[in-house]
Specification:
about 30% helix; alpha/beta; about 425 residues; Rossmann fold; about 25% strand; 9-stranded mixed β-sheet; 4-stranded mixed β-sheet; Ribosomal Protein S5, domain 2
């Protein structure tokens, strides 16, 4: 059958051989083993410290380090730097006297050595292997007993018990399951490098993301030097943390102060440029929002958005037309987050409106001003979270004025050295800014 009757896609059906290892309850060959249970209060947990990679941004995204026995899946576009990040992380772990194993199904050991020389990540504690046979990898890892293991990539692994080719749904699912059992039984953290589809999702069955403990996405445009490591699932930490890296010739270098980097090339007097503060986990980051409103040459105006939710921008444009009276129906609107960052937090709503209004009026935002706030459909400005941490970061970066929701201003403590203005509506913000 060429087309799947469930999803309607072509060439997605995979043949699997039936297995007699599992029998239904009470049926022929049913297991007579009893389920072993343990009382919750009788479980003893040792104070096992997390494993640190030496890369602070990487450890922060993982929740403070690598947990023993965890299974971590990292995906990203081809050439974004997944293998580079793994080699650098393994090198940092090996510097603490730990033995690490790097298994590549895509490169030979000589190619790995050439890349390691460029990255300056050569160490005697890093063991490398070029292998796709999962049985050989499992047997070898039990003999070597590494402290951390990396599989690059999970789509190249091959299980001889299955007849399908590497990368198929059944092969990826079975390989992930066996590696998960290995990690839980031995306590060895296992990293799985995963390919992504053209839609940006990790290739393979969705159940693979359910099986692992942590799912990391390595984002960024290959035309930009910055890379964003984001956790979308983490059983041992926050899913809001991001790590910022800069791609250089000698590998990835962590960016400890992303706000300064993202604002380094900003033009302070250009109409359409606004600075806003976004919370990424526990850390506030200042980013530049750029808006451009120009007369349309077609019957339907264009709405092109990069780094923001396009539906959210369309909603805010409708609020501006209705509540402020700006005639944006005959204008093409373009929005961009400088630096290639993606922001989906509603607290940047006021920044989006200010950027579009600044370009439409051709009036620049006053220098030293930062705009924040969530906007509702009636034009009201709603309170946002972690406002004191945001204002503290704004002051540290040298800004002198901050526009925030009125309800946040009532609850926050006064911060010396910066003027904080509270607003209730979008119209009130326009009067202050322009």
């Amino acid at each position: 059958m060429g087309r799947c009757p469930e999803c309607g896609k072509w060439d997605t059906l995979a043949e699997e051989s039936s297995s007699s290892r599992f029998a239904p309850h009470g049926g022929k060959g049913a297991s007579s083993l009893e389920l072993q249970t343990v009382a919750m209060d009788a479980i003893e947990i040792g104070n096992e410290p997390r494993i640190f990679s030496g890369i602070k941004e990487f450890d922060r995204v993982l929740g403070g380090g690598i947990v023993a026995g965890s299974l971590i899946l990292i995906g990203g576009d081809p050439g974004i730097g997944k293998s580079t990040l793994m080699l650098q992380a393994l090198y940092g772990i090996s510097q603490n006297g730990r033995k690490v194993l790097y298994v590549s199904g895509e490169e030979s050991v000589k190619q790995i050595k050439l890349r390691s020389e460029r990255l300056n990540t050569i160490a005697s504690n890093i063991l490398v292997a070029s292998e796709i046979d999962l049985d050989a990898i499992m047997s070898g890892s039990e003999t070597i007993k590494p402290d951390v293991m990396v599989i690059d990539s999970i789509q190249t692994m091959f299980n001889a018990e299955l007849t399908s080719a590497p990368g198929s749904v059944s092969q990826v699912r079975e390989s992930t399951m066996r590696l998960m059992i290995f990690a839980k039984k031995t306590g060895v953290p296992v990293f799985l490098v995963g390919h992504v589809t053209k839609d940006g999702a990790i290739a393979g069955p969705r159940i693979m993301e359910h099986m692992v403990d942590t799912v990391l996405y390595f984002e960024g445009d290959r035309n930009h030097v910055f890379r964003i490591l984001r956790a979308v699932k983490n059983r041992f930490g926050s899913t809001n943390e991001i790590g910022v890296f800069e791609m250089k010739e000698e590998g990835l270098q962590e960016v400890l102060n992303p706000s300064a980097v993202f604002l380094s090339e900003r033009s302070k007097s250009a109409p359409g440029s606004v600075v806003t503060a976004s919370m990424e986990g526990t850390r506030p980051i200042l980013v530049e929002l750029q808006g451009l409103a120009s007369n349309t040459n077609f019957g339907t105006p264009r709405r092109t958005v990069l780094g923001l939710d396009q539906n959210r921008v369309a909603l805010l444009v409708a609020v501006m037309e209705k509540k402020i009276g700006m005639n944006l129906l005959g204008h093409d609107i373009f929005m961009n987050v400088a630096g290639g960052v993606k922001i989906y937090e509603p607290s940047v709503d006021m920044g989006i409106i200010a950027a579009i209004a600044s370009s439409y009026l051709d009036v620049s935002i006053p220098e030293g001003t930062v705009v924040m706030g969530e906007v509702g459909l009636t034009g009201e400005v709603r309170a946002i979270s972690h406002v004191e941490a945001r204002v503290g970061e704004i002051k540290k970066m040298g800004f002198t004025r901050c526009i925030i929701p009125e309800n946040n201003l009532k609850r926050m403590t006064r911060i010396e050295g910066i003027e904080v203005i509270g607003i209730k509506t979008v119209a009130e913000a326009m009067e202050i800014l322009f």
